[in-house]
Amino acid sequence: MAEAAVFPSKEPEGSGMSMAEVPTIKDIEQLLNTGRPSCNHVDEVWPDLFLGDLVTAHNRFGLWKMGITHVLNAAHGTMFCQGGHDFYGTTIDYYGVPAYDLPDFNISQYFSSAAEFIHKALNTPGAKILVHCAVGMSRSATLVLAYLMIKHQLSLVKAIETVKEHRWISPNRGFLKQLRNLDIQLKQKIGC
Question: How far, in Å, CA of 68 to CA of 63, rounded?
């Protein structure tokens, strides 16, 4: 019998970390390299928020069985990651982010809009959202981490720890720098 997933409260929590304690990229990479790698195509990493790959995203029947009502494709338009209203029809609300998994790609330009789309989905009664890219480890994971930081006031470290409880992730170094910058900006905004 499968164990029920345990998720943190949706209430915001302060990290207690001062600006001087913002981790280095090396510290973040070491944190990411802990734990065992996940082999699943999809994992629930926050209540009703699933992080997955293109195999999951391209299986419309599987999505229906999971109860997925929203899809955020973090690799929209790339060679193996097609999607959209033509593919999903009217049963799934779709948002495509045309990101490339390259360290110099500016994924931070999508942090706000992706967080809004995820937040809106999770505040829709009965909704479930799949956030995916090709493998479900870098682009999509980066957008999920940004969502947790922006909408739930989690620090970058806490967001990584939260997701890693359920799925192994590995945002590229450039994305980690952008997430670290977001962490600093959010801490400055709330005056930590």
Answer: 5
